[in-house]
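A quick aside before the break. I want you to see a complete sequence-to-structure record at least once, exactly as it would be stored in a machine-readable document. Don't worry about memorizing anything.
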Amino acid sequence: MSEVEKEENLVKKTCRELGITQKELAEILEVTPHTITNWSKYGMDKTTKTALEGLVYKNKFKEIQENIIDFKNFSF
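That is the input. The structure line, written in tokens, reads:
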């Protein structure tokens, strides 16, 4: 698998894990949808990769926080 294919998977993986479209990802990152397409086709820099990974981790952290709150509200 080439480096560009791995990066394309990162864009798709990020959207899948966040439950959003590539257009919505562009809005979150304040870039054009064309930029997202270019990252998928031609690759991205390390900062962009870190930003995408950060979005996924932020989402997972939010889910964990919600589960903790739900657990605290659960009565035995």
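Two observations worth writing down. The chain has one domain: 3-72. The first helix runs from residue 3 to 18. We'll return to this after the break.
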